[in-house]
Amino acid sequence: MTNKPWWWPQRVDQEWLQRLRQDYPDKADWSDDSLIDYFNDGRMKFSDTWDHLGDARDEYEKLASAFLDLVEKHGLSPSDFNN
Q1: Does 1 have pLDDT greater than 60?
Q2: How far apart are CA 74 and CA 57, in angstroms?
Q3: Residue 15 in this model has a pLDDT that exceeds 80
Q4: CA gyration radius for the chain?
Q5: d(CA 60, CA 9)
Q6: If phi over 0 gives left and psi between -120 and 50 gives alpha, with beta otherwise, what is residue 11?
Q7: pLDDT band at residue 52 using 50, 70 and 90 as cut-offs
Q8: Residues near 36 by Cβ (< 8 Å), separated by ≥ 6?
Q9: Under a CB-based contact definition with an 8 Å cutoff, are residues 27 and 35 in contact?
Q10: pLDDT classification of 50: cutoffs 50, 70, 90
Q11: At 15, which helix (H) or strand (E)?
């Protein structure tokens, strides 16, 4: 696993779900949808640690998607953004 900066956008994917199941063993048998509903308010694209995104969440998802697309297009990795 690459060392990602704290601000790196986190996709809701199998890696994220696996980490939740490891971090919260009491919820390890929950379905993917149940975990997403519980930890991410049912949002399927990105997870975040900022509870104040509010109405800006849709805009954040657009920005995060564009950023990750550019990173991939230019062959970069999270370690390229560490200080």
Answers
A1: no
A2: 26
A3: yes
A4: 14
A5: 9
A6: beta
A7: low
A8: 12, 17, 42, 43, 44
A9: yes
A10: low
A11: helix 14-23
Query: Nearest Cα to 58, choosing from 41, 71, 43?
Result: 43
Instruction: Tell me what pLDDT residue 57 has.
Output: 79
Measured in whole angstroms, how far is the alpha carbon of residue 2 from the centre of its chain?
A: 14
22-36 confidence digits (pLDDT tens): 999 999 999 999 999
Q: How far apart are the first and last CA of the chain?
A: 18
Per-residue three-class SS string for 21-44:
HHHCHHHCCCCHHHHHHHHHCCCC
